[in-house]
């Protein structure tokens, strides 16, 4: 609604996961046009994920799975909707579009003609892939200084310890995952092609990011109320009815040299790739500056010239104040930093949490798979020197731990 008040037409397509009904759907949260998958996840094809609920909604009206085309595929469908909205957009107003692909979230699925696009690519396994990717990222300068593999400890069994059948299944799942990512990339390209053809590219800010680290779910996922006729046979991997993920080993190949993956508050779960393009104003380059999703709203509002009203009532509902800072000066090259030395960002995960301030991070989340343990003693890391969280400094600097724990307890728990 803030951008609507600034004169923008607002559009949304994709995953919502912020409420399933009433005042919590996109049509009631500031979007002029929307096609949303309301839940946290669903099949990428036209099949029921949970038969007891309406998963989709367009402009406030529920859409049943039975109403979707037989060849419906989420990434293509969300892209089509955004292009439909942009083609119909009146040129006398600016626009804001929120496009949230569910790919490559499980279940791993692609159109049939993309199933073999990466056939054989991952036969060497996730250990080799992890080494290759980190080396390539270091060569490109996209990893922060100090991010090394020397002290990285993978949690998945070594690739060579797996049976031939296990290797075959994991490699196939990763092939499908890669095809999903490329299909999404090509779909983003469709939108950029439209911006080029319509003369809007240079005056459009594109902000692309992932929501968290890679998923480490087991290769086969089963839910009592999951996909009807669930078929997780190897021959059906990636097709309608299959419900698979690529497992911990390939997740670690995606997040290394950072520790762990989605579902944790370690760096492998929190850090996400992000790309920003605005040819008219942003120079090219790589930034290792610390930012969070809380910084996106103030950035967009500054660009739009729309002040935030502050905490209180707004359009007959209560809103919170802004906790982030605008990235706009940093993106334009006018400021070396986004946050001050005293700015903090915190997270809570069940009974535990984490907090970052400056280069220091505290965390008391147990390692994945810790049965019956909801939190540990607080650990302390210097992310400038040790972004892989390999060296716990808590015993050496207890005063820093105590100060950051108080900040977390007061403002972020």
What is this entry, summarized?
With 413 residues, the chain is α+β, with helices and mostly antiparallel strands. The chain contains nine helices and 13 strands.
Fraction of residues in β-strands: 5-15%
Strand order, main sheet: write it out. 4-3-2-1-5
Q: What CATH architecture of the largest domain would you give?
A: 3-Layer(aba) Sandwich
The CATH topology name of the largest domain reads: Alkaline Phosphatase, subunit A
Q: How would you characterize the overall build of this protein?
A:
The chain contains nine helices and 13 strands. The protein is of the alpha+beta class and 413 residues long. The chain has a five-stranded mixed β-sheet, covered by helices on one side. A hairpin with a 2-residue loop joins strand 11 and strand 12. The model has no long low-confidence stretch (mean pLDDT 94).
Tags for this entry?
5-stranded mixed beta sheet, 413 residues, single chain, Arylsulfatase, C-terminal domain, alpha+beta, Alkaline Phosphatase, subunit A, 4-stranded antiparallel beta sheet
Helix and strand topology:
Layout: H1 2-5, E1 9-15, E2 33-37, E3 56-58, E4 61-63, H2 74-87, E5 95-100, H3 126-140, H4 164-197, E6 206-209, H5 247-255, H6 267-270, E7 274-277, H7 296-304, E8 312-314, E9 317-319, H8 328-331, E10 344-349, E11 352-357, E12 360-363, E13 379-382, H9 398-411
Parallel strand pairs: 1-2, 1-5
Antiparallel strand pairs: 2-3, 3-4, 6-7, 8-9, 10-11, 11-12, 12-13
């Amino acid at each position: 609604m803030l951008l609507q008040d600034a004169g923008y037409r607002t559009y949304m397509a994709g995953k919502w996961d912020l409420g399933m009904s009433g005042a919590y759907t996109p049509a009631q949260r500031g979007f002029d046009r929307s096609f949303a998958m309301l839940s946290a996840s669903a099949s990428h094809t036209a099949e029921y994920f949970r038969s007891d609920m309406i998963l989709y909604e367009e402009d406030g009206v529920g859409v049943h799975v039975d109403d979707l085309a037989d060849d419906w595929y989420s990434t293509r469908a969300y892209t089509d909707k955004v292009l439909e909205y942009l083609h119909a957009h009146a040129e006398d107003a600016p626009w804001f579009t929120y496009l949230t692909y569910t790919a490559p979230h499980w279940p791993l699925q692609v159109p049939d003609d993309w199933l073999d696009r990466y056939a054989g690519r991952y036969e060497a396994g996730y250990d080799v892939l992890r080494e290759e990717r980190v080396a390539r990222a270091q060569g490109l300068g996209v990893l922060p200084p100090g991010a090394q593999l020397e002290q990285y400890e993978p949690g998945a069994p070594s690739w060579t310890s797996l049976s031939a059948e296990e290797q075959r299944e994991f490699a196939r799942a990763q092939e499908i995952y890669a095809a999903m990512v490329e299909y999404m990339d090509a779909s983003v390209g469709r939108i950029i092609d439209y911006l080029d053809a319509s003369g809007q590219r240079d005056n459009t800010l594109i902000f692309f990011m992932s929501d968290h680290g890679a998923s480490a779910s087991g290769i086969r996922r089963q839910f009592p109320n999951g996909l009807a006729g669930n078929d997780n046979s190897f021959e059906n991997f990636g097709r309608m009815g299959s419900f698979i993920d690529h497992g911990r080993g390939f997740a670690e190949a995606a997040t290394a040299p950072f520790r762990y993956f989605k579902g944790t508050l370690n760096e492998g779960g929190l850090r996400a790739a992000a790309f920003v393009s605005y040819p008219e104003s942003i120079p090219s380059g790589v930034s290792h500056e610390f930012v969070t999703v809380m910084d996106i709203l103030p950035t967009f509002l500054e660009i739009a010239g729309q002040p935030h009203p502050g905490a209180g009532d707004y359009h007959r509902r209560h809103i919170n104040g802004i906790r982030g800072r605008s990235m706009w000066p940093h993106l334009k090259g006018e400021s070396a930093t986004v946050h001050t030395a005293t700015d903090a960002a915190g997270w809570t995960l069940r009974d535990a949490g984490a907090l970052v301030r400056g280069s220091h991070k505290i965390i008391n989340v147990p390692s994945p798979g810790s049965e019956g343990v909801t939190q540990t003693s607080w650990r302390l890391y210097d992310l400038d020197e040790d972004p892989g969280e390999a060296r716990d400094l808590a015993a050496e600097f207890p005063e820093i731990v105590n100060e950051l724990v108080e900040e977390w307890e007061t403002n972020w728990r």
